[in-house]
Design brief:
The complex is a heterodimer of chains A (100) and B (558). By secondary structure, chain A is mainly α. Chain A has one domain. Helix content of chain A is 83%, strand content 0%. The mean pLDDT of chain A is 92. Chain B has a domain of 220 residues. Chain B has an eight-stranded antiparallel β-sheet. The chains are: A mainly alpha (100), B alpha+beta (558). Chain B: This is Putative iron-regulated membrane protein. Chain B: Pfam families: PepSY_TM (PF03929). Chain B: Keywords: Membrane, Transmembrane, Transmembrane helix.
């Protein structure tokens, strides 16, 4: 508490926050849609899969959000959250197309 | 972000806590008030001060009222925008529904009308909404704002910012930050167990504020975590709208398949048919609940596909006897009254969600648990408010030296979101008692009193916070405490003068909705006076001096 934090550039802070919030949301979106698609693919009713993923989504968001401020590199925040979110969303879309 | 894990978490806790804490104050304070939203409604609308009623006869009372209902003007305006032109003369009625709870003397009635000329959305529709006195069927005036359930309650999750659901998104983000603040708060404090038992009210403000911040944060940690998380889950379909986007086709297909499987028709048949006695269906539903040994009052009743051969009536139980959201819906064929289906028990996943959201939405009948919710919510407010005070106290001396106004503004906004929201709420109640009863659009003026009181509190806090820049306490805290005391006592007195329901009378009759709220207002006033007097002592340095003379080691570097 007592140690004062070294100062960071406003750009660093902005990129970090946008990465945590926007990237975090995209990651959770990917996680949720991929989860639901996987659920449907394995025979779960859509409603049930959606309800289950909604229960998990915000815990995942919480972990992603906290992690983005702990991890050293901003590039990693963006790559994992935004990149991972995009990949999972794409996976969900492909999976959905193959089973629908 | 920083070299050490703890430092990164501290940064997160400090800055998100400060900025989003202002929003969280609104969520926690008005969320705590929402626990008794129906009781606040009774206080605000004196003609509804009578005992809760069960659902009246549908056939004799409700149906004739439903048939006279009209779509709401504002919904028609919105529909015109969607259609991009005039609406058809005829708007076929689609459905009727009625909702009440074990705390509601009044009954809310909803109707749904098809908008048939929207090429983009063949299912486009608008709603009608009225509130009635179920004893007589008399409609309550639309001008009467239900301050508890229609203003304070939605304020705590939507901030009344409806454009693009902006308020929901802000509150959702605030809930996420609340969760992150709890996690980072635990990480920051290694000696969490010892802090649990530490409160030194006579130390310097920074130390006392931190003690109380840790104490309320730790003691109510599960409560805070749970409410922030379940709040997000309740509105998950807004934050992650999968059903309207990627899974739209899947969702529609499932709904149609389900309708086919359950016999609850998704679409009307297009063949006219009369409606059988709904009262008889209610009797049958109650009989079936009783057979399962459940208290059987109707909470929600809906008639779908009005006047059509596919019409069905869904009757849901008011879940007063358990935490989880219940329904035990029983569905009847509208034209004959024969049973179509009883809802099966929820699956494991649905059961967990129903329990979690039920714990947040509290439809149950358990007054002690209800009060614990209020205390939990207020503990959240104390935790956030002491966080603000700690932030300011920690920095104000350094800022005073460097000439920065940061601590001053943080303090001014803190004043307006801590004492300011109480002033706004109490001011609204005073306005509710003072505005003429026949004032057109009375609810709008009550809301205006709220927003203007809040604005006034902010302006006052901003003007009076200059001493913070000299590392002193802003007198705005104390002055606004006095304003709270005056407004809260004023509301109680005005309630007496305008309705004759003074405390001796309401207590004597054990009419708790009004007696309880009056007592709560008086308790708030007493607490505000106590706080104002303590703040005065702080301002003139009496408490710090006392501490120094008693040899407090930590006061040495105050």
């Amino acid at each position: 508490m007592s140690a004062s934090a070294p100062s960071l550039s406003p750009l660093h802070i902005a990129l970090r926050i946008i990465g945590a919030v926007g990237g975090g949301w995209l990651f959770v979106w990917g996680f949720t849609t991929l989860g639901i698609a996987l659920g449907i693919a394995t025979g779960m009713p859509y409603d049930e899969a959606r309800t289950l993923l909604y229960l998990l989504a915000f815990v995942v968001f919480l972990v992603a959000f906290c992690w983005s401020f702990v991890t050293a590199s901003i590039a990693r925040v963006w790559l994992v959250l935004a990149g991972g979110g995009a990949v999972m969303t794409g996976g969900a879309w492909l999976l959905l197309r193959s089973i629908a | 972000m920083f070299q050490s894990f703890r430092m990164s978490m501290t940064w997160l806790h400090t800055w998100f806590g400060l900025v989003i804490g202002y929003v969280l104050m609104v969520c926690f304070f008005f969320g705590a008030l929402s626990v008794f939203d129906r009781e606040i409604d009774r206080w605000a609308i004196p003609e509804t001060r009578f005992e809760p009623q069960v659902l009246p006869s549908f056939d004799k009372m409700l149906l004739p009222i439903f048939e006279k209902m009209e779509p709401l003007e504002e919904e028609l305006d919105a529909a015109r925008d969607r259609v991009g032109g005039p609406l058809p003369e005829s708007k076929p009625v689609m459905g009727y529904s009625a909702y009440t709870t074990h705390r509601d003397p009044v009954l809310m009635m909803f109707s749904e009308y098809a908008i048939t000329n929207n090429p983009d959305d063949p299912r486009d529709h608008v709603h009608g909404y009225i509130t009635i006195d179920p004893r007589s069927g008399a409609q309550l005036s639309d001008e009467q704002l239900k301050i508890g359930s229609e203003f304070f309650y939605p304020l705590h999750y939507s901030l009344h910012l409806h454009w693009a659901n902006l308020g929901y998104w802000i509150v959702g983000f605030a809930a996420l930050v609340m969760l992150a603040a709890l996690v980072s708060g635990v990480v920051m404090h290694r000696k969490i167990f010892r802090e649990f038992f530490t409160f030194r009210p006579n130390k310097q403000a920074q130390r006392s504020a931190l003690d109380l911040h840790n104490l309320t944060g730790v003691v109510a940690l599960p409560f805070h975590f749970f409410f922030a998380l379940t709040g997000l889950i309740v509105f998950a379909s807004i934050y992650l709208p999968v059903g309207e986007t990627m899974f739209e086709d899947v969702a529609l297909k499932q709904a149609q398949e389900e309708a086919a499987a359950t016999g609850l028709a998704f679409d009307p048949a297009g063949v006219p048919a009369p409606l059988a006695s709904v009262d008889a269906m209610v009797v049958e539903a109650k009989r079936r609940w009783a057979a399962r040994d459940m208290t059987g009052e109707v909470g929600f009743l809906a008639v779908n596909h009005i006047g059509d051969a596919n019409s069905y009536v869904s009757i849901y139980r008011a879940g007063t006897d358990r935490v989880t959201l219940t329904g035990q819906g029983i569905h009847f064929k509208g034209s004959t009254g024969e049973i179509i289906r009883e809802d099966p028990p929820p699956s494991a996943v649905e059961g967990v969600t129903d329990f979690m959201t039920g714990l947040h939405l509290q439809h149950f009948k358990h007054w002690m648990l209800r009060w614990l919710y209020v205390l939990g919510g207020l503990a959240g407010c104390v935790c956030i408010a002491t966080g603000f005070i700690f932030f300011v106290e920690k920095r104000k001396r350094a800022h005073a030296k460097s000439g920065s106004s940061g601590a001053r503004w943080a303090d001014a906004v803190a004043v307006s979101t801590v004492t300011g929201i109480v002033i706004a709420a109490a001011g609204m109640l005073v306005g509710n008692r003072l505005l003429p009863t026949d004032l057109p659009d009375r609810g709008f003026w009550e809301e205006s009193v709220f927003w203007l009181s809040w604005l006034a509190a902010f302006v006052h806090a901003a003007i009076r916070s200059a001493p913070v820049q000299q590392a002193r306490i802003s007198p705005a805290w104390r002055e606004q405490c006095w304003a709270i005391a005056v407004l809260a006592v004023g509301a109680v007195v005005l309630n007496w003068i305008t309705t004759g329901d003074h405390l001796l009378k309401t207590l004597g009759e054990a009419y708790w909705p009004v007696a309880g709220f009056d007592l709560a207002l008086l308790a708030a006033a007493a607490l505000a006076v106590f706080a104002a007097r303590r703040l005065r002592l702080r301002e003139i340095g009496a408490i710090e001096q006392r501490e120094t003379s008693s040899g407090g080691a930590e006061a040495a570097h105050a």
